[in-house]
DNA sequence: CTGACTTGCGCC
DNA sequence: AAAGGGCGCAAGTCAG
């Protein structure tokens, strides 16, 4: 039953499947009853009419269809994104590749999403138009029908496709952003906006201090090489200019240099030109790319959306009469590890709201800091220092959890594929390179170099099973929440466009932001929690691990946490 | 000049 | 308070 939340997992005949195909200015709708030709100008109406009943839209790539529909006020309940589904099916160990591959395989493998930052495609030069979505759909259906893990794969494809809808909707709605608040912040920290080509006053001041402290009047503090040379010339024993390295030093240049780096970062990453480029009409609009990371995490494009620094979050402010509901999962990945491995002792520690504190209370480790370092080391492959020392204790206490990540690491070292709970497969090291990743095998490398490479790949596969499954949990959470918000809007507000209802505006691995009318904020908070519980049941059935959320109803993102 | 790479730092 | 996994981005650097 929970699967209904993601949108049609295990659906049968009652959902109408319609494959949409671009044909010049028209669209072909491949329906059970036959093929219908729909002029592109009437597509939005066509989709809207069919959305009155249960329908799944099947299209080559959500980024090529959905933004236009949203712009015309049309929201769809479910889709299959053939591009994303293809990428998953190409790597999963649960698919018979012979059923998937054909003449068009290379084209589907290479298909990229379109985002607003891409140079406009020539209308007739889109590589997607050389592909046949109906044929790809048929191949994918055949793969699913023959898969020994059909249910998992179908859930994964439904969740991924639902993520694609969420991503488009978040770009459409945008994150509410107050340019005036942001500018005030910049002016306070950097000084007034400088004319092009000049440093803000505060940076200029710090630059002089740095030059003075190092006796280097021509120093360019923006050049790491320049700074390194000057530091060494001043007799400081450093090999790089990272902030952490500098902080270890005892020298008058350190405070102004650290301050400079911090402010220069703000200026270049999120300064005035960022505002000019990415914020329009009170919204920060970037593009989210589901499946953009091999583990299944999302990537983003435009404005560095996945690393909005805490420093500028005060500018993310809900509209008048609206609120932001900010929710994040405490320690998602260790909880996922407990569940995937079926480790009851670790699940017991996860019963506490703070899993690390739970480990302390259980007597496994002495301090919360040790717990954190130990668990992160286990998931990331840290072997040195404190996390290495923690391993024997963790192995004794959580044998199943540790065995799972250790086995994933060994498999990776042997060059084998590992997978997430729902069957997303890791890439083959130096393999077919479906997308750019990893280090290609380097012929003639030394034995030590090979070992180093193998161990590095083992750390990657070790992390893959946890990070990838956590990404699946988050996708299910998001997909279910999307539907819940829509229904809530329906109940409370009746008809209305997406952006007039409570709607998702941001997602970051284990955190979501919902923009909602103020009077519905508490209801939204409930839905966010219910969706998290549903996601846990969907992925891990009755296994006793929960995913507690920190939920805050706030005006500004900065007021959460 | 452009493009590829490196450095450093923001997020999880 | 890094390390160990995953990213995006801007500026500097260097080769062609």
What portion of residues is helical?
Answer: 40-55%
Whole-angstrom Rg:
26 Å
- What is the class of the largest domain in the CATH system? Alpha Beta
Beta-strand segment tally: 14
- Low-confidence stretches are 432-443
Q: What proportion strand? A: 5-15%
The secondary structure category is: alpha+beta
The CATH topology label of the largest domain is Nucleotidyltransferase, domain 5
Shape: globular
Q: Please state the oligomeric state of the protein chains shown.
A: single chain
Arrangement of strands in the largest sheet? 3-2-1-4-5
Number of helices: 21
Using the 3D structure, state the CATH architecture of the largest domain.
2-Layer Sandwich
Describe this structure in words.
The protein has 561 residues and is of the alpha+beta class. It has three domains: 1-172, 2-Layer Sandwich (Nucleotidyltransferase, domain 5), CATH 3.30.420; 179-276, Taq DNA Polymerase, Chain T, domain 4 (Up-down Bundle), CATH 1.20.1060; 333-467, DNA polymerase, domain 1 (Orthogonal Bundle). The protein is 48% helix and 12% strand. It contains 21 helices and 14 strands. The strands form four sheets. The chain has a five-stranded mixed β-sheet, sandwiched between helices. A four-stranded antiparallel β-sheet has the order 12-13-11-14. α3 packs across α7. It is globular, with a radius of gyration of 26 Å. It binds a DNA duplex (12 and 16 nucleotides) through α10, α12, β10, α17 and α18.
């Amino acid at each position: 039953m929970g699967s209904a939340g993601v949108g049609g997992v295990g659906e049968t005949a009652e959902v109408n499947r319609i494959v949409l195909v671009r044909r010049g200015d028209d669209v072909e709708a491949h329906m059970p009853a036959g093929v219908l030709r729909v002029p592109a100008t009437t597509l939005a109406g066509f989709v809207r009419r069919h959305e009155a009943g249960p329908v799944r839209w099947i299209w080559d790539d959500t980024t090529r269809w959905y933004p236009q529909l949203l712009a015309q006020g049309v929201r769809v309940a479910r889709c299959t994104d053939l591009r994303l589904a293809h990428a998953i099916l190409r790597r999963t160990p649960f698919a018979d590749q012979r059923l998937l591959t054909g003449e068009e395989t290379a084209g589907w493998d290479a298909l990229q999403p379109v985002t607003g930052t891409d140079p406009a495609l020539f209308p007739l030069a889109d590589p997607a138009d050389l592909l046949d979505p109906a044929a790809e759909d048929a191949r994918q259906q055949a793969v699913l029908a023959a898969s020994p893990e059909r249910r998992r794969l179908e859930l994964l494809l439904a969740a991924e496709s639902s993520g694609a809808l969420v991503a488009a909707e978040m770009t459409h709605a945008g994150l509410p952003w107050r340019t005036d608040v942001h500018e005030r912040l910049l002016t306070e920290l950097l000084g007034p906006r400088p004319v092009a080509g000049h440093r803000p006053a505060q940076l200029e001041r710090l630059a002089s201090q740095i030059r003075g402290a190092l006796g280097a009047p021509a120093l360019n503090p923006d050049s790491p090489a320049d700074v390194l040379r000057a530091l060494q010339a001043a007799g400081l024993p450093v090999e790089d200019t990272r902030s952490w390295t500098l902080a270890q030093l005892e020298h008058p240049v350190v405070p102004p240099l650290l301050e400079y780096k911090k402010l220069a970062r703000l200026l270049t990453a999120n300064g005035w030109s960022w505002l000019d480029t990415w914020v329009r009409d009170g919204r920060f609009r970037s593009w989210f790319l589901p499946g953009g990371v091999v583990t299944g995490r999302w990537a983003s494009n435009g404005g560095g959306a996945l690393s909005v620094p805490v420093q500028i979050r005060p500018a993310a402010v809900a509209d008048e009469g609206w609120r932001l509901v900010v929710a994040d999962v405490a320690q998602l990945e260790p909880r996922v590890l407990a569940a995937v491995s079926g480790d009851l002792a670790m699940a017991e520690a996860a019963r506490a709201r703070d899993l690390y504190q739970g480990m302390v209370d259980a007597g496994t480790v002495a301090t919360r800091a040790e717990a954190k370092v130990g668990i992160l080391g286990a998931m990331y492959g840290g072997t040195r220092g404190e996390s290495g020392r923690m391993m024997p204790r963790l192995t004794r206490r959580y044998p199943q959890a540790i065995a799972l990540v250790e086995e994933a690491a060994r498999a990776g070292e042997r060059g084998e594929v590992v997978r997430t709970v729902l069957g997303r497969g890791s890439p083959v090291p130096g393999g077919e390179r479906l997308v750019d990743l990893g280090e290609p095998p380097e012929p003639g490398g030394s034995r030590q170099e090979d070992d180093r490479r193998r161990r590095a790949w083992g750390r990657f596969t070790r992390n893959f099973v946890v990070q990838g499954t956590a990404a699946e949990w988050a996708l299910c959470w998001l997909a279910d929440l999307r539907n819940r918000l829509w229904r809530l809007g329906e109940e409370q507000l009746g008809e209305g466009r997406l952006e007039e209802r409570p709607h998702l505006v941001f997602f970051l691995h284990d955190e979501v932001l919902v923009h909602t009318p103020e009077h519905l904020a508490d209801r939204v908070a409930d839905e966010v929690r219910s969706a998290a519980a549903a996601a846990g049941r969907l992925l891990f059935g009755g296994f006793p691990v929960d995913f507690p959320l920190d939920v805050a109803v706030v005006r500004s993102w900065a007021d959460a946490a």
